[in-house]
């Protein structure tokens, strides 16, 4: 219980300690004599002054002076705290993870966070959008931890990022963009990470498409051959499926090795 301290002073003291977020439960614990109405007024003052922002129901960000013009913190700084509050496993993926691995021309303003079910609604605050992609299993062994200004962040490894951008290529602008990112990402990938656990994460068609792009578009024979050999060891059956899922398949040739119907042209930047 706090005596003779305002919510504004409480928030300032948290920020001074490097804490960039707080929950409604923490405010209630700190000010147990306050009613909900008593708390609402000083909270709204913090919002109006640009000192805090509601990012999720019951979860708030404190905005340090250097970010007050922008009005929000970059998502990599608060995602770990938010996902802990929601008690959800997660990782930052796709173009955002690729950027951490040095494989992006510019930092995207749209963020993709992978988590489990049930689905979480997207966050769209001050022009920055956070999308949530729900999957059945978060592959902890294929995640990396990165230091941020306010703590740590879980991101997908180069190998997981590579297959994610192929599997979810529609989310990032199509196969040509996925291949261009993969071209910059491939040198960060480690062949020993492409094992049975890795292969079990995705349907065979996503593995086929990844293999085809690595092999026939980027000409990264060493890693493509390793991927192919591991698929053969695991007795993964390749079926003839289109390279572009939504494209027509009649009248197009198939790649004999990866068994993909080459129904689209992939163009690198």
Description:
The structure is a single chain. The chain has helices spanning 7-16, 24-30, 36-48, 75-85, 94-100, 158-167, 169-172, 175-185, 196-199, 204-217, 221-233; strands spanning 21-23, 52-56, 59-62, 90-92, 110-115, 123-125, 128-134, 143-148, 151-156, 241-242, 260-261. By secondary structure, it is of the alpha+beta class. Helix content is 39%, strand content 17%. The mean pLDDT is 93. The protein folds into 3 domains: 7-67; 74-156, no CATH class; 170-269, no CATH class.
Descriptive key words:
269 residues; alpha+beta; 4-stranded mixed sheet; 11 strands; 39% helix; 17% strand
Strand-helix topology:
Elements: H1 7-16, E1 21-23, H2 24-30, H3 36-48, E2 52-56, E3 59-62, H4 75-85, E4 90-92, H5 94-100, E5 110-115, E6 123-125, E7 128-134, E8 143-148, E9 151-156, H6 158-167, H7 169-172, H8 175-185, H9 196-199, H10 204-217, H11 221-233, E10 241-242, E11 260-261
Parallel strand pairs: 5-7, 10-11
Antiparallel strand pairs: 1-3, 2-3, 4-5, 6-7, 8-9
Outline of the structure:
The chain has 269 residues and is an alpha+beta fold. The protein contains 11 helices and 11 strands. The model has no long low-confidence stretch (mean pLDDT 93).
